[in-house]
């Protein structure tokens, strides 16, 4: 089977699942989601991802009856039915099917959508080419909602120009990427934007910080500027599906430092921690 989907208790092949027009994810993007990977029946960092999902739901006042344990058990059932060995797990909670009324006051309950797709686990440190762009998103980037138009536009422009990801900056300081967090390594110190409403609290970001500390690398969670980005020894990006990737280029500037050994050590430590 090429993939499995589940919507409010009905599961089946991806192409067999129907979502009602009035699901508020359709008209308003009134929904939160999380994206995970797993293998052999397991979801890696399941608790952390589902806790973040429920935190996102809480942040938009979405009324749902789910607990982390309940969500894990539904998702694991879907994985079993998918018959896939290695997969991504997309879970979305939308705010009921009350249709196109802006105020959510009359909405009760949540719809749940789960998609299981074949995936590959990241097994080696990959190199990427990055570009930069002004961060024009709104200021609720810590909530993982399905309002992803900016990420779609940044990613389309990046791909059109031969780049793999876009580093975003606001008021001259780097925040994160279109769909990853970003770090710089300079003189043996790892820097990244602190947690705030300007970035998603990435699960891989958190684990990279822990891995760095395990390796004795100092981590500073402070905003860094565009000139600091350009003059860094290394630029690293993190996300669940790719773990860490290292930049060979940002806006045409090459990064060829001797620190790649540190990046490889970080990748190995992260792999050991996150995909045991
Ligand atoms: N994206 N920042 C943004 C804006 C993201 O969308 C993501 C993840 C991250 C990295 O977070 P994590 O390490 O928890 O995956 C940072 C996922 C992969 C997506 O939307 O598909």
How would you describe this protein?
- The chain contains 7 helices and 15 strands.
- It is α+β, with helices and mostly antiparallel strands and 276 residues long.
- The protein folds into 2 domains: 4-118, Aminotransferase class 4, branched-chain amino acid transferase, N-terminal domain (D-amino Acid Aminotransferase, Chain A, domain 1, 2-Layer Sandwich); 126-274, D-amino Acid Aminotransferase, Chain A, domain 2 (Alpha-Beta Barrel), CATH 3.20.10.10.
- Strand 3 (31-39) and strand 4 form a beta hairpin.
- The mean pLDDT is 96.
- N-(5'-phosphopyridoxyl)-D-alanine binds next to helix 5 and strand 13.
Quick recap:
The chain has 276 residues and is an alpha+beta fold. The protein has helices at residues 24-28, 46-59, 68-82, 149-160, 203-214, 226-230, 260-274; strands at 3-7, 10-13, 31-39, 42-43, 86-94, 111-118, 126-134, 165-170, 173-177, 181-186, 189-192, 218-221, 234-239, 243-250, 253-254.
How much of the sequence is in beta strands? Answer: 25-35%
Write down the overall mean pLDDT.
96
The major sheet is characterized as: 9 strands, mixed
Our count of helices gives 7
What are the bound molecules? N-(5'-phosphopyridoxyl)-D-alanine
Distance between the termini: 26 Å
- Uncertain runs are none
Q: What string gives the helices and strands in order?
A: EEHEEHHEEEHEEEEHEHEEEH
What would you call the structural class? alpha+beta
Number of strands: 15
The CATH class designation of the largest domain is: Alpha Beta
CATH superfamily of the largest domain: D-amino Acid Aminotransferase, subunit A, domain 2
Please name the CATH architecture of the largest domain.
Answer: Alpha-Beta Barrel
The CATH topology of the largest domain, please?
Answer: D-amino Acid Aminotransferase, Chain A, domain 2
Helical content stands at 25-40%
Give me the Rg, rounded.
19 Å
Number of domains: 2
């Amino acid at each position: 089977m090429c993939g499995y989907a589940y919507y409010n208790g009905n599961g089946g092949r991806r192409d067999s699942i129907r979502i009602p027009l009035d699901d508020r994810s359709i008209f308003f993007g009134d929904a939160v989601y999380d994206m995970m990977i797993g293998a052999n029946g397991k979801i890696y960092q399941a608790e952390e991802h589902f806790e973040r999902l429920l935190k996102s739901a809480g942040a938009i006042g979405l009324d749902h009856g789910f607990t982390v344990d309940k969500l894990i058990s539904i998702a694991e059932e879907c994985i079993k039915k998918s018959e896939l060995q290695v997969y991504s797990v997309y879970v979305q909670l939308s705010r009921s099917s009350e249709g196109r009324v802006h105020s959510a006051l009359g909405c009760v309950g949540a719809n749940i959508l789960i998609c299981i797709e074949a995936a590959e686990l990241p097994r080696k440190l990959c190199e990427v080419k990055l570009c930069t762009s002004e961060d024009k998103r709104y200021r609720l980037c810590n909530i993982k909602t399905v309002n992803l138009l900016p990420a779609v536009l940044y990613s389309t422009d990046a791909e059109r120009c031969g780049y793999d990801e876009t580093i975003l900056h606001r008021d001259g300081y780097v925040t994160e990427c279109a769909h990853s967090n970003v770090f710089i390594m300079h003189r043996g110190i790892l820097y990244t934007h602190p947690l705030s409403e300007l970035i998603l609290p990435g699960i891989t970001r958190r684990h990279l910080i822990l891995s760095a500390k395990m390796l004795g690398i100092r981590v500073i969670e402070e905003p860094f500027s565009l000139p600091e980005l350009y003059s860094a020894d290394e630029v690293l990006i993190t996300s669940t599906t790719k773990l860490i990737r290292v930049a060979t280029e940002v806006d045409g500037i090459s990064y060829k430092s001797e620190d790649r050994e540190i990046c490889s050590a970080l990748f190995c430590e992260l792999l050991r921690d996150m995909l045991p």
